[in-house]
């Protein structure tokens, strides 16, 4: 199965939607892309430009959706939607952890949403969900549906 993602920037926020399998063959380039989002100079990178993968990574098909207009400010939040992800291995989790550390050092917040099934279980077992989706773990009154959606409960 392939791994795909789309990047959409709206002002100082970026959403990354994933699908397929994040594993040893795709985790490195994906993690690097997330780190580059948090550390890039906005004046040097147009917001609508597709993120490209090395030619030797045929399992990744990055795309970018149009945004309203390029932002001249640095990114403050990256949301990684794992709703379409079917599988994640330790290298995928390591890539998310590395991106989390890089974004934190650069004053940016990385948040994972919509982790379900085996992907959610892997994040729980490794403890990564505690910092990648802190709202989900820190609010005792939340239901599993809230954890899956990344949205606060009413």
How is this structure best described in words?
This protein has a single domain (3-149), classed as STAS domain (Transcription Regulator spoIIAA). It is 35% helix and 26% strand. It contains six helices and five strands, in the order ββαββαβαααα. Strands 3-1-2-4-5 form a five-stranded mixed beta sheet. Helix 1 (27-39) packs parallel to helix 2. The longest helix has 16 residues, at 90-105.
CATH topology: Transcription Regulator spoIIAA
Provide the low-confidence segments as ranges. 42-71, 137-154
Gross CATH architecture: 2-Layer Sandwich
What spatial form do the alpha-carbon principal axes imply? globular
Strand content: 25-35%
The CATH superfamily bears the name STAS domain
N- to C-terminal separation?
37 Å
Question: Biggest sheet: strands side by side, in what order?
Answer: 3-1-2-4-5
Domain count, please report it: 1
- Strand and helix order: EEHEEHEHHHH
Instruction: Tell me roughly what share of residues is in helical segments.
Output: 25-40%
Strand elements, count: 5
